[in-house]
Structures are given as C-alpha cells and as structure tokens.
TrEMBL record:
It comes from the Eukaryota. It comes from Heterostelium pallidum (strain ATCC 26659 / Pp 5 / PN500). This is Ankyrin repeat protein. It holds the Pfam family Ank_4.
Amino acid sequence: MIKWLFENRSKERSNSYMYYAAIEAGHLHVVQYLLDIKEPFIFDPDFGSLLDYSIFCNQLEIAKLLHQHNIIESEDTPIDYAALNGNIECLKWLNENTTVEASVQAMNNAALNNDLEVLKWLQQHRTEGCSDDIIQIVSRNGHIEVIQWLYENQSNVLQSQQSIDEAIAYGHLELAKWLFEKRNQQPSEDAIDYATMNGKESEIRNLQMIKWLHDNHPNVGCTEQAILNAIKHGHFETMKWLRENRTEISILKTLSLDHLYTYGVETIDWLSENFIIDWKTVLREAIRRDSSEIVDFIIKKNLTTIDVLDKKKYFSIFSKWMQKGVFSDESIDISINVLDYPLEDIEMIEFLLDKLDYPLVELKKFEEIINSTDNSNISKTLLNELIKEEINSIVGNSDRSDIPNEQIRKKIKVEH
C-alpha cells in the first residue's frame, strides 16, 4: 500500500508522518522499509525525536533499529519514559548504549506505578533521585511499601511535608496508621472532613477511617462539610454515624444543602427528620435534573410545593412525567393546575382535564381565557370543546352533540 501511494500520490509525501505512525503502532518492518528507501523524516515538536518517541511508545526494538542507523538525536528524557513503562530492559539498554538524559521524574514515575523493581534499579544505576514532594503524591495511591522504601533510601523526602492527610482523604487506612505510628505524623484538625471527601472509595473504607480518627485522635474535629460530603457521595451509614457520634454534627439544626437529585428517598426522608433544609431549592434542582422520584417524594412528604413559575419553566418535564404516570394522584393534585400551561399544548390539556377534577369555577375561568387569546381557530375550537365536555360532565348534562367527532379531533391533533 505504501509503495502504491508513493507511485500514485507522491505529492502528499511532503506532509507525511509515517515514521511516527509506524513507531506508535509498533511496525518494525515499516520503519525498516522507510529507512531502506531513505524516506525523509519530518520532525514534529509535539512528538519529539524518533528515538524519544520510540521509547515513549515502549518500542525498544524500533529504538535499537534507529540507533543502528545512527538516528540517536534526543531532546527529552527517554529514561523517564522507560521508567513510566516499567521496562527495565529498556532502562538497561538506554543506560549502556546512549547518553540520553533523565530527571527525578523517572523515579517519580516508578513510585506512582508502585514499581519497586524499577525504583531499586534507578537507585543503583542513576543519580537523579526523586522529587521532594513525591511522598505526598504517592500517599494518594496508598503504595505503602514504596513509601517505606523511599523513606529508607531517599534522604530528601525526610524533609517533605506530612502526607498523612493525603492517605486519609483517599481512604488508605493502613498507610495512615503507619505514617502516624512510624513517622509520627499527626492528622490535621479537619481530618474527618478529609475522610469523607473521596466518593470513589467504598463507604465501608471511609467509615473505618472516620472511626479510627474518632477513637485515636481526640483533638481531630470536623465541620458541616463532613456530612455534606457524605450526602454528596450517597454514604447513608456515614451520615447517620456522624449525626449520632460527632458533637459538631449532632448540634446542627440546619444544613446548607442545594441538591439531592442523585440520591434515594431514604436519604431525603432521614434528612427531613433531622435537619431544617431549604427544600424549595432542593426541589427546583431535582426538577431541573429530571429526578421525578425525588420530586414526587418531596411533594408527598409535604416538604414544599412547586410554584407556578417552576411549573411553567419546566413544563416539558412535568408533561413527560405525568403522561408516563410517574406522579401519584396526590402529587398531581398538589403540583398541577391546567391554567399554568401553554394554551397551545392541546394534548397536555386534554390529559389534565381527563386526569384531574377541576372546580366548575376554574373551568369557566379557563374557557374565558381561551376565548380572549389569539390562538388559531382550530386551537380555540378544540380547547373550547374540551372545556365544554368537562363542564357538561360536572353539571350532569348528558347532551354530547356538541363534542367534535373523532375524525375532527384526530385532524386537529395531527395539525398540532
């Protein structure tokens, strides 16, 4: 294919990145072919030199081939890449056959990968060492053996800031214990807040960390943010534990909460019984997020109601929920008024009139509004007939001759 392109589309060779593409794909034979035909190399600063890029892509055999053809230019730190890839064979080859550079990032990469073998190799054969703050970064991953090794073999990390808070925030209990017991690191004052931050960790692990802090560090406190974090991550048992065991949370009367749209009704029910919350704000966010279950529960629980502006603003959401039968009858009665909806939405009004029982005075009022609008004649005809049908059913008039026949009704619906 490459031969055919050379013969038939040669003008495009001037902008070709074939070397980079072949290296990335690990196509040694393609790189060999391009070298054999002496295909010009187009340097791209985003990719770097061919040798650097081959190490970055973990293609040692291609790097060796380039080296054999005296393509040895390097403008980066490929040893850092080899350490990132965990490739000790590549590290050995680069160290023995090239003069490429390295940096502290090589050891940092190995530490972040939890790769003790690469760390030991770098310690023995290179002098760059690691960065002063690597302990803080690795503590987020909980690599306790790597951290222990760094403390024993890299003297510069001894002066680094404490990393126990990172271990706490990312749910690594055993590491937090080791840093406290062996390195004499003390948790920060708001460590319990940190322990509730990471929603990626399981609630069991987070709660174990909180209990360890509570039992072993009496000077550690927490703030309202602790329970807000637990609510945010849906950690229901943590919420209850904080309320029952931490004075800072048990004395709270109100919570500064603006949304609960991703959580179950159990959480909302418990919160409503334990805190004063701006349920109007929570409800609006739940509507905006299309969380019908939560909206329905808040309304049935009578925590707040949906005002007219919200009903008009989120009309399409309500329409979908109601026609799917999402709301209970009680919630519909509380939240819906036919007068709040656009008069042109005939299908929705027909649904409302069929579903709800409206007082006669309301229907008369609606009929007056319809006749005073600039709606099309078809719209007025259908809306008026719908209202008359409802009025007749209320007053007990059995004369239905004024109701449009089914063909007219279908025609009107199609046009709207």
